[in-house]
Recover the amino acids of this structure.
C-alpha cells in the first residue's frame, strides 16, 4: 500500500496560485510526488481557545481511530485465515480502494454536518469509533471462542495415538461388551515393536485371551491394538505392558459419549460457517466506516492547524502528496525551500535530529502544516 503526505500552505493571491507553485516545484520538472487537491469544506471556526483545545483532542482522536482501523483490518486478515490474499480487496472505503478514496476525498455532509461546531463533529466521530471498537471486541471474543473450541476438538481428533480421540477409529464389534469377566483393552505399540508385541502380549499377564489381539489403526509412528483379558488381570497387564514400552489407553467404549463428541464437532463447525459470512460483512462495513472517519479527522486537524498557523480569514490550500519512494528526502528539501518563509524557526529544526529535551522526532514539525496518512494497515504483507 501507500503513504501520503497531507500538507497545507496559505493562499497567496489565490489558493490556486499556492497549488500551481507546489505543482511546478514537485512534479513538472522532477517527478517527486503525485499531487491532488484535498477538499475541506467551510467549517465553523469558533474561538481561538476552542481551536487550541481541539488541536490536542484531535491528535488523540486521530491515534485512537487509526488504532481501530488497524484492529478491524488485522482481524479481517485473521478471520479470512487461508484467504489472506483476499484481505486487500475487502478493505474498501465507500466501495472504492483506499488510495482512490483518499485522493478523491469529499467531505460526507450527511454523516458530519458542517453546520455543527468542530467540537460536535469530533464527538460524532469519537462516539462512532468507540462503538466500532466495542462491537469488534464482543464479536471477536465470541468468534475466537468458537474457533478455539473447534480447534481443540480437531486437535483431539488428529494428534498422536497416545492422545487423540478414538471415536472415529474404533467400532462396536472391536470390543467384548457387557461381560462380567472379560474386557477389551486398547494398546498403543510403536511400529518398531510390533514383532515384540505379537510375541509377548499373551504372557504380559496370566489371564490374556490367546490370539485376541487385532491391529485397529496405525499412524506414522504407532499402531493401535486391541487385546482381550480377564478384568482381574488389568493392573498386572498395564504394569507389564509399560515395562515393554506398550502404552495402554484408558478407554471405555461408550456409544453415547462418542456420538455426543461427533455432534459437538459438527455443531461447532456449522456454527463457525454460519458466523463467518455475517462477521466478514460486518468487518467490511465497519472498516469502511472507521477509515472514512479517520480521513475526516485528518481533514479536521488540517483545518484547525491551518487556521491556528496561518490566521483568519480562512485562506489556505490543503494538498495531498503521494511521494515517489526514491525521492522522499529530496521532496522534503523542496517543500522546506518552498515554505521556509512561513516559519523561520522551523527550518532551523530538522525533525530527524535528536536534540535532548526536544521531543520533535515524534511530532515532525515543518514550516507548513503536515500530517502523514499511512495506508499500510496490516502487520504482514499480502
Amino acid at each position: 500500500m501507500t503513504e501520503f503526505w497531507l500538507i497545507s500552505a496559505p493562499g497567496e493571491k489565490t489558493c490556486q496560485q499556492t497549488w500551481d507553485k507546489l505543482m511546478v516545484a514537485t512534479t513538472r520538472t522532477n517527478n517527486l510526488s503525485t499531487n491532488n487537491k484535498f477538499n475541506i469544506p467551510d467549517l465553523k471556526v469558533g474561538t481561538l481557545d476552542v481551536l487550541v483545545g481541539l488541536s490536542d483532542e484531535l491528535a488523540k482522536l486521530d491515534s485512537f481511530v487509526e488504532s481501530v482501523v488497524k484492529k478491524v483490518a488485522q482481524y479481517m486478515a485473521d478471520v479470512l485465515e487461508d484467504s489472506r490474499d483476499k484481505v486487500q480487496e475487502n478493505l474498501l472505503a465507500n466501495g472504492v480502494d483506499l488510495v482512490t478514496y483518499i485522493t478523491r476525498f469529499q467531505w460526507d455532509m450527511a454523516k458530519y454536518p458542517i453546520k455543527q461546531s468542530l467540537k460536535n463533529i469530533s464527538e460524532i466521530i469519537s462516539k462512532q469509533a468507540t462503538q466500532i471498537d466495542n462491537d469488534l471486541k464482543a464479536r471477536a471474543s465470541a468468534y475466537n471462542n468458537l474457533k478455539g473450541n473447534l480447534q481443540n476438538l480437531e486437535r483431539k481428533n488428529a494428534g498422536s495415538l497416545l492422545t487423540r480421540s478414538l471415536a472415529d477409529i474404533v467400532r462396536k464389534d472391536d470390543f467384548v461388551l457387557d461381560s462380567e469377566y472379560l474386557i477389551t483393552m486398547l494398546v498403543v505399540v510403536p511400529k518398531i515393536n510390533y514383532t515384540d508385541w505379537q510375541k509377548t502380549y499373551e504372557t504380559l499377564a496370566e489371564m490374556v485371551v490367546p490370539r485376541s489381539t487385532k491391529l485397529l489403526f496405525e499412524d506414522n509412528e504407532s499402531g493401535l491394538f486391541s487385546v482381550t483379558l480377564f478384568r482381574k488381570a488389568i493392573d498386572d497387564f498395564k504394569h507389564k505392558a509399560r515395562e515393554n514400552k506398550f502404552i495402554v489407553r484408558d478407554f471405555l467404549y461408550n456409544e453415547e459419549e462418542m456420538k455426543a463428541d461427533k455432534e459437538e464437532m459438527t455443531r461447532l463447525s456449522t456454527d463457525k460457517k454460519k458466523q463467518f459470512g455475517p462477521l466478514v460483512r460486518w468487518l467490511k462495513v465497519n472498516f469502511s466506516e472507521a477509515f472514512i472517519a479517520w480521513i475526516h479527522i485528518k481533514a479536521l486537524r488540517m483545518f484547525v492547524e491551518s487556521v491556528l498557523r496561518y490566521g483568519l480569514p480562512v485562506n489556505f490550500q490543503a494538498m495531498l502528496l503521494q511521494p515517489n519512494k526514491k525521492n522522499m528526502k529530496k521532496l522534503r528539501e523542496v517543500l522546506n525551500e518552498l515554505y521556509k518563509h512561513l516559519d523561520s524557526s522551523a527550518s532551523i529544526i530538522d525533525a530527524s535530529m535528536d536534540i535532548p529535551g526536544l521531543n520533535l522526532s515524534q511530532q515532525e514539525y515543518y514550516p507548513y502544516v503536515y500530517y502523514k496518512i499511512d495506508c499500510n494497515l496490516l502487520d504482514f504483507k499480502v
